[in-house]
Amino acid sequence: MIETDETDRAILRALVDNADASAGEIGRALGLSQPAAWRRIRRLREAGVIRGTRLDLDAEKLGFGVTVFLGVKLGTKGQASLGDFERAVSAIPEVQTVEHILGMYDYRLRVVARDLPDFERVLRRRIMTLPGVASLDANVLLSEERRPGPIG
Amino acid sequence: MIETDETDRAILRALVDNADASAGEIGRALGLSQPAAWRRIRRLREAGVIRGTRLDLDAEKLGFGVTVFLGVKLGTKGQASLGDFERAVSAIPEVQTVEHILGMYDYRLRVVARDLPDFERVLRRRIMTLPGVASLDANVLLSEERRPGPIG
DNA sequence: CTTGAAAGAAGACCGCG
DNA sequence: CGCGGTCTTCTTTCAAG
């Protein structure tokens, strides 16, 4: 956990709202000079609070109309199994997210495909050949809303 | 689905790899001039293929050490129930993602909290008071890997 | 905080198929 | 007319006073 004052948090809120905003814009909105805002942003990056900035693509417009969440339960659960599974799953391009979780499942995968036949191909040829998978549960994404989440 | 040629896809790959890259850098990497690359990027934005660029914050460094995924099953499933649920859940700042899904659950929520006591507070005072919730299932996030996903 | 040099953004304009 | 290339201007970045 890193120290952030109210100004830092205001900067983060402004950047979450618009990640493309320049240091000058941020400063103007908060009553700071451009270099002052810029230095604070750099400090937040260096501290790792801001991990980076990533592109938000519309998978559907790229021809990937199907997103499925897979709950995965492993059979054998040594630490070697986890590593094997993670390494194998990392080689599947259709897998967008690998979440190691605690609860009903061991992993949750976000998988995209062009359509349902394409998803079946991924499932049969890629997912079902993963090492150590004992059971699978699938949920098809209908719609999704992402929200900023709490800052401070 | 939008038309993208191989050059567009190369641009998207480069931007996914580094969302902060300038049009000049992208162009240099692909053998295009700065304005040519810039025009293509703008076109991809206008077409909605690039939805935008969002800040990637480290929740842990901001003091939110706990991330939990909640699978939610609704009791009453008229279309009014879905709207009521979505509206109510949108008012909870700790909820980062609302996914409407098809399968074992109706919704999946990504919830962050400072620690487990804080999560209990959110669960009891916010989540359990949501309208129409019939059953809940929780998974605690241990670690997560995000990958670029397929482009074309 | 202010300044200043280097880089990037973004428009006007031309040439090609 | 799409698309790319050059030239040009304005803004932003980022380091140094």
UniProtKB/TrEMBL annotation, chains A, B:
GO terms for biological process: regulation of DNA-templated transcription; response to amino acid. Pfam families: AsnC_trans_reg, HTH_24. Keywords: DNA-binding, Transcription, Transcription regulation. Residues 1-65 form the HTH asnC-type domain. InterPro entries: ArsR-like_HTH (IPR011991), AsnC-type_HTH_dom (IPR000485), Dimeric_a/b-barrel (IPR011008), Tscrpt_reg_AsnC-like (IPR019888), Tscrpt_reg_AsnC/Lrp_C (IPR019887), Tscrpt_reg_HTH_AsnC-type_CS (IPR019885), WH-like_DNA-bd_sf (IPR036388), WH_DNA-bd_sf (IPR036390). GO terms for cellular component: cytosol. GO terms for molecular function: sequence-specific DNA binding. PANTHER family: LEUCINE-RESPONSIVE REGULATORY PROTEIN (PTHR30154), TRANSCRIPTIONAL REGULATOR AZLB (PTHR30154:SF34). This is DNA-binding transcriptional regulator, Lrp family.
